[in-house]
């Protein structure tokens, strides 16, 4: 199910990971649940699809047995992942409080012309491995999110309280326990040594918390998660939202015209809905059409600001992913961003249609040349599109991909 132990993947992949379903079953799972059924109160994960999948598992259908075995194997591995909150890094000589989140800007490197390496210089698209070291929190946060997501889903599908207890321990350490919980700001995210102690671009890193919100919603009925846990988690997200919306960094990131701005909105909308502020979630999702789709997607479905990057395909699909998170939040608030379009056709669907053929690693975007692109994290976007638009054509874009890798990487439930 996972090629490497808990690698950093995109948010949508983290949110979607659950049960491997054959491509022919994806669309039929979109059927509504029977009236009176208690659906999970998830935000990005589809409550209906989760429910239908669990019914298949409870019925011991042969089509899902292999998938459940894979999920349980991943959950058993996740049980062994240590609980490492933001305090696990220690002070590392930074002089900052240990509960402050710290990360290094990934595309910034020591200056080879400088004796001290300072100030760091930008090499766009080239990831500095120092950013993933244990001195910083980004990899640790991502690992927690992946672990919690896997365990919460395993609890939901199996009812095994051990999975719920372990997932709860991770979330409590990061968001609830006074001694270890992260300070709810990103004042020191994506630091650029020699230049600053934090940058507004670091806000994109807490997109990893979107699947944690869904995981908490799944955990709430378990014996391992308490009402006090929910209160403290909602309190944490309330404080973090206040910082996002009021801080200089947050305002600057909200004004970004590319994927950074889209992911800012996706986070605000998802976190607001999680803590019960439906009005704010609906407001942000409702503005996404004119604010993000119309300004970032051309009538032909391309995204010029993402195409200008050194990894154009990655950033094109990454931005599309954020738009689909916003559409999922909007769906919970009675809005339909999936079918929103400008008079000239700028829409999520147009972007899917334009870029779907380029999911094939051998088919780079026109005019951009070959690039370092891993398509598998974005496979769930097209499975979701097949559900939303009731169109299996979106599954055809998966045909060029390696079948064995696809079987591992797309062990997901369409959200």
TrEMBL record:
Swiss-Prot/TrEMBL keywords: Lyase, Signal
Source domain of life: Bacteria
Signal peptide, first to last residue: 1-35
InterPro entries: Alginate_lyase_dom (IPR008397), Chondroitin_lyas (IPR008929)
Gene Ontology MF terms in the entry: lyase activity
Domain Alginate lyase: 98-354
Record's protein name: Alginate lyase family protein
Species assigned in the record: Pseudodesulfovibrio karagichevae
């Amino acid at each position: 199910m996972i090629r490497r132990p808990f690698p950093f993947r995109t948010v949508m992949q983290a949110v979607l990971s659950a049960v491997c379903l054959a491509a022919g079953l994806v669309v039929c799972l979109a059927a509504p649940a029977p009236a009176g059924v208690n659906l999970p109160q998830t935000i990005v994960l589809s409550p209906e699809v989760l429910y239908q999948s669990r019914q298949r598992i409870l019925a011991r259908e042969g089509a899902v047995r292999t998938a459940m075995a894979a999920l349980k194997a991943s959950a058993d591995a996740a049980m062994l992942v240590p609980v490492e909150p933001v305090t696990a890094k220690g002070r590392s000589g930074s002089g900052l409080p240990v509960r402050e989140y710290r990360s290094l800007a990934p595309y910034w490197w020591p200056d080879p012309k400088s004796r001290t390496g300072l100030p760091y210089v930008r090499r766009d698209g080239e990831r500095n491995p120092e950013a993933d070291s244990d001195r910083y929190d980004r990899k640790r946060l991502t690992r927690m999110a992946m672990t919690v997501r896997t365990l919460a889903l395993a609890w939901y599908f199996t009812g095994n309280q051990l999975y719920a207890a372990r997932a709860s321990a991770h979330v409590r350490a990061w968001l609830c326990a006074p001694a270890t919980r992260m300070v709810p700001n990103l004042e020191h995210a994506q630091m650029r040594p020699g230049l600053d102690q934090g940058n507004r671009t670091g806000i994109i890193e807490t997109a990893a918390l979107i699947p944690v919100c869904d995981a908490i919603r799944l955990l709430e009925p378990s014996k391992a998660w308490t009402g006090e846990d929910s209160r403290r988690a909602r309190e944490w997200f309330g404080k973090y939202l206040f910082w996002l919306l009021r801080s200089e960094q947050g305002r600057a990131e909200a004004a970004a015209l590319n994927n950074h701005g889209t992911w800012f909105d996706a986070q605000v909308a998802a976190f607001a809905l999680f803590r019960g502020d439906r009005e704010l979630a609906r407001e942000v999702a409702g503005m996404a059409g004119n604010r993000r789709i119309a300004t970032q997607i051309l009538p032909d479905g391309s995204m010029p600001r993402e195409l200008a990057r050194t990894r154009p395909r990655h950033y094109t699909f990454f931005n599309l992913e954020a738009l689909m998170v916003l559409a999922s939040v909007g769906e919970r608030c009675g809005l339909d961003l999936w079918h929103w379009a400008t008079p000239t056709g700028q829409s999520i669907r147009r972007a899917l249609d334009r870029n779907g053929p380029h999911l094939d690693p051998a088919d780079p975007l026109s005019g951009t040349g070959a690039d370092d692109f891993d398509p598998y994290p974005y496979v769930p976007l097209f499975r979701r599109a097949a559900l939303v638009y009731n169109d299996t054509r979106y599954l055809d874009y998966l045909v060029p991909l390696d079948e064995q890798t696809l079987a591992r990487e797309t062990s997901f439930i369409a959200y």
